[in-house]
Amino acid sequence: MRPGVDKAMPYDALTMKAVTDELQDVLPGALIQNVFEPDDLEIVIHFYHLSRQINLLFSVNPAHARIHLTKQRKKGKPRPSSFCMLLRKYLIGGRIKKLDNPPMERILTITLSPPAGIPPVKLMAEIMGRRSNLILLDDKDIILGALKTASAERNPIRPVFPGEPYRPVPSPQGKLNPLEMSARELHSVLENELSNSDHLSALINGRIMGISPVLADELAYRLRGKNKESMSFSEQLHHEIENLFQKNGPATLKPVYLPEQTLYAATPLTHLQGYRQIEYGNFNEMLDEIYQKQIREEQQNQWRKQLSGAVEKRLAILKNKLHRQKTELSASTRASEYRLYGETLLTYGDRVTVGSVETVLPHLYETDREIVITLDPSLSAVANAQRYFHRYRKARQGFKKIQKQIRKTRNEMEYCRELIYTIDRTTGTSLEEIREELLESGYLKKKKKTKTRSKGLEKPQPLVFKTTGGRTIMVGRNNRQNDYITFKSAVRHDTWFHVRALPGSHVILKEVSYPPPQEDLEEAAFLAAYFSKGQESGAIEVDYTEIRHVRRRPGGKPGAVFYENYETITVNPRDKTFRERFNLG
């Protein structure tokens, strides 16, 4: 990876400046209609202005601290916090009076014109990673409440607690605000430090306030590229920062997003010009889109981890269970041996010494051999014989039963491996379907029932493709969808496909009787191979048969089937022609 691309998404001072500039165009005068609290670290304020609804999101989540307009329809918690109720009391019915973002700071002050009978207040939004906060102040800058509070005992330097005076965020020690300095003043402070251009990025990030590592890399790159002899590095740096922050007017910026690096910036990143940069016309829209995507992906990864963990736990239990069953099966194969020991002890019982732990006696059926028999020293020869006859009967009766149990355990282990493969590849509603399946299977514990009525899952939504001939191919993305397309959607003469001996999707070719035309057959078989664990293999065998020859496995899990009267075709899941045909990566 190239230098400068492994940074987290930076909500820096320039981002705050850009967001504030856009909010200045839409929020002043807006009427506050409601306040919601989607989670413990997030507040959404609903405004109405110029005949349209506006939603402003504040997040103090350390991983996603930010402010921006959002189009998402977020619901509030069933029981909002006292701070949310406080905001509703002071804000609803009021209007936005003004917005203020101090230069080079990640702070936004929102001053409000209160509704009748309510004293004036203002909101202080501080977007500073793990120290981010949203604070409500009265007109004398006394704290009324905050999303995250800290008493004087916990934070004696800057307590954030109702009744305490608001203390401004301390300026970072050793950092400079070039917008409050002339180029000459900045040069006098940084002259010696800036003499070594090899460490420009680290210096800019460490000495200039409000500059993220990504923006520091960009500024350093621009300074090296200019190489103006008439201007020192410090003068060029001052010039670049003034241009970006537009000290005397609204910032004129071009927000960009680099999807491969999960980075955004308020200006095109020329030091990363080799990477794809998507330009946006609106900073708030960009932030709303990319954070929504990132948070959704993180939530899905958490779900995958939870679901996979539950299945892997069950798989470990099954492996131990299979080991025990094999031990029992091994013991059950000794039925004839136990019977021989019992008969031998009854025949030669008079030769057995009482209290012995073992005895050596002649073999009943092979005159030239002797056998060693382990004994319980507390029992007589006859009692030891009866003990072996009991083992013999148990082993004989249990042999078939244990074989059946082993088959059942192996089938469930196969089901678990299929689940793990599916969980790793699936997204969105398909994960919810898998979660529901695991709850029904007992792999996940069901939460205690509440009075609120839970909504049932929607109808399964398998992938749907069209063959070159215009026929429909359905692909299940999880066991619930596999079960649905195979036993509910498919009709008698449809063709069913599945990769041989590997986890993979059920695939149904519809609208043509069995056997299908060769072109349709190859395309459906390709999809069965592509949506399987053998996706990156060079050649995969795919079994196919008429749907009426596919049956549910008795007592099996969803998606577990038997099939017969099948044929096999070999396809290449890496075939570029087929991948392009179905728009697959």
Your description of this structure?
The protein is α+β, with helices and mostly antiparallel strands. The chain has 4 domains: 13-146, ibrinogen binding protein from staphylococcus aureus fold; 178-279, no CATH class; 310-450, no CATH class; 463-581, no CATH class. Helix content is 37%, strand content 19%. It contains 13 helices and 22 strands. The protein has helices at 13-24, 82-91, 183-190, 200-207, 213-226, 233-245, 283-332, 335-347, 381-425, 429-441, 479-489, 518-530, 576-581; strands at 31-39, 42-49, 52-59, 66-69, 95-100, 107-113, 121-126, 133-138, 143-146, 256-258, 263-265, 278-279, 358-362, 370-374, 463-466, 472-475, 495-499, 507-509, 540-546, 550-552, 561-563, 567-571. The strands form 6 sheets. Strands 15-16-18-17-19-22 form a 6-stranded antiparallel beta sheet, sandwiched between helices. Strand 2 and strand 3 (52-59) form a beta hairpin. The longest helix is centred in the middle third of the chain and has 50 residues, at 283-332. It is elongated, with a radius of gyration of 36 Å. 34% of the residues are buried.
Question: Could you give a quick summary of the protein structure above?
Answer:
The protein contains 13 helices and 22 strands. It has 585 residues and is α+β, with helices and mostly antiparallel strands.
